[in-house]
């Protein structure tokens, strides 16, 4: 349940809480017979509550790798929107309770569908099951490489910037061209011409960016899943 709270797609408010709870119970019932022995504790004691909190936190931190991975697409869309002049075009998301640029929502949907098409959710669930072998119950959370999880935040911005870099450079050249044009022909209304042209060129950049985005994002998904597995000692 700790993983399902933040895991992409499964954490969406469009999926009822009862469905997520039943799925967690079904998964637990399926893997319980093959798991290592659980420490003998009283089910209604403080020790059992601490073990439950520990497992919730471990699942939460494992799913954070996937949340950061899917946020790369949102950050990429935000960077491209800033260059296109669509920074003020915000679309409210009633499911997640936040507001993101339209391109951010678009790329987020694309990244989620691509992650599901690659069976990334099955690999993630497999890593969560393996965590009971690699990091047995009762090992605690302070021995985990927590700094590696913190460093993934910097990786988020670096990966988003590398994906959006071609479009950013192309839009920078367009803005420089209109700057030179406004300097050489002051009487020309550059704002009336530059804004629609910048948006048109930005849409073309978005269109061409999809040509190689799938392969690059597949590498990002593989890196995120590998880091998720290495986090628990895999």
From TrEMBL:
InterPro entries: FliR, T3SS_IM_R. The chain crosses the membrane at residues 56-74, 107-135, 155-178, 190-210. It comes from the Bacteria. Keywords: Bacterial flagellum, Cell membrane, Cell projection, Cilium, Flagellum, Membrane, Transmembrane, Transmembrane helix. It is found in: Cell membrane; Bacterial flagellum basal body. Its main location: membrane. It is a multi-pass membrane protein. This is Flagellar biosynthetic protein FliR. It comes from Shewanella japonica.
